[in-house]
Amino acid sequence: MTRLDGLHGQVAIIGSGIAGLMAALELAPRPVVLITRSGLGQESSSAWAQGGIAAALSADDDVALHLADTLAAGDGLCNADVAAGILSETGDAIAALEHHGVAFDRTESGTFSFGREAAHSRRRILHIGGDGTGAGITSALVRAVQNCPSVTCLTGVDARRLMVRNGRIVGVHLQDDDGAAVLHTGQVIMATGGCAGLFDASTNPSGNFGAGLAMALHAGAAVRDMEFMQFHPTALATTRAPLALISEAVRGESATLIDQNGRRFMSGTPGAELAPRDVVARAVHRVIADGGRAYLDARKSLGARFKTRFPGIHAMCQADGIDPAVDPIPVRPAAHYHMGGIAVDRQGRSTVPGLWAIGECAATGLHGANRLASNSLLEAVVMGRRAAGDVAGQDGFIPSVETEPPVLQKASASTLHPVISRELSVTRNGVGLERAISWLEPYVHAGYAASDPALVALSVAVFADLRRESRGGHYRSDHPEPALNPRSNTMTLTEILTHAQSANAQSLLKRPA
């Protein structure tokens, strides 16, 4: 690599989804290096977000109602104070997005057009182009970043390790096709997204295996609530990969879920199709596990209007030979959003000085055990702004460090998909978790292409093994009831590996001689 001259000492932002882009813009005019494995905004879940951004800004809504819905969806594990703080900044977040060129859908009278999604008690979801919210926000912020002279973009560059000296960040190990180098910096904002790409059925880009989580763990940072993966109940059940998403907003417009016999299987569940995502995902999973098929039926509720209300989804369905106006849409659950992540405080600071984390790779306490739909984009904007403000107020001094980094093998999770998808999916149990831990741990230590993805998956398995209850996005068939006094769990790499080794030892003792 030869492109780092003049960039040392600048703030490094790793990832170019909505959180990373917002942080870069908020830091202006302070010099920033924005590092992304592909092009700006590409291979990010942000750009694929169809549903929208939650904003309690209508006349019949307020922060208290939004908070109540968030806490209910979070199933006892939200940090109520943190959640209230993030939601209270909604107005400023939306204004900041509009300042950077984001144009939300509006009614004929010029007011915001609000949609409804599952577990929201009000219509409070802002959209762009019906179902193109993530792409709309991302493209506007990309344009703003490209026109911001204080931001240097390193595209096609893979961040692989955080350099740590005396317990604090001193650099980032980068590599591309020409080799590896270290960007010397004492301030890193991690914005690498989630880890749903660990699963074969996923709505995320396949490269989203949790690279930022792996880097943070290797640097000594603590992670929180890793077991909580949200499986979206209505991914388009076709052969494409990643799976296309049928937004929850379609159910918000009264589409129903039916099985292969036309039976509406959610009708007896509180909230029906708009019940929390984990409830709907398990119901869809059960239909398919029993040998049936699940469909989203919008024929009566939307019919010919589907094409104009959800043009992007309509085009995806048409590409697979489905016309939502006359055909029920085949669906299945798919890994969608990770509620856990790098443990951070209210400013986005991790447990390692010099490292901040924002967006899906971070665990702020907002989502708890089950994210309320469309809160993630709001969190990305709010925490991107907060972290930028915190970084701007601190000294960027870095100790001198000289190193020649090795070129690491390109990371890939493909060999892990079958085991992860079987043992860590919608329904889990102790035997399967022990199998996953036993199988994944050797990959972590072997230095293979799968080592970093295996570390993230092992963390999910260890946290899931320790949570012997069912709650939110974590369901165990051997412990189907919730515990009376739930709590969040936080661990470092050392603690995760120690538990994995203990679990392996216990598993060996259980095996017949």
Description:
The protein is α/β, with parallel strands linked by helices and 513 residues long. The chain has 16 helices and 19 strands. It has helices at 18-27, 45-48, 63-74, 80-88, 90-99, 133-146, 211-218, 248-252, 277-289, 306-309, 311-319, 375-392, 417-423, 430-446, 451-466, 493-510, and strands at 11-14, 32-36, 53-54, 114-115, 125-126, 151-155, 158-165, 168-176, 179-184, 188-190, 223-224, 229-236, 256-259, 294-297, 329-338, 341-343, 355-357, 362-363, 490-491. It is globular, with a radius of gyration of 22 Å.
Structure at a glance:
The protein is α/β, with parallel strands linked by helices and 513 residues long. Helices cover 34% and strands 16% of the residues. Among the domains are: 209-228 and 405-510, Fumarate reductase/succinate dehydrogenase flavoprotein-like, C-terminal domain (Methane Monooxygenase Hydroxylase, Chain G, domain 1), CATH 1.20.58.100; 232-335, Succinate dehydrogenase/fumarate reductase flavoprotein, catalytic domain (Flavocytochrome C3, Chain A, domain 1, Alpha-Beta Complex).
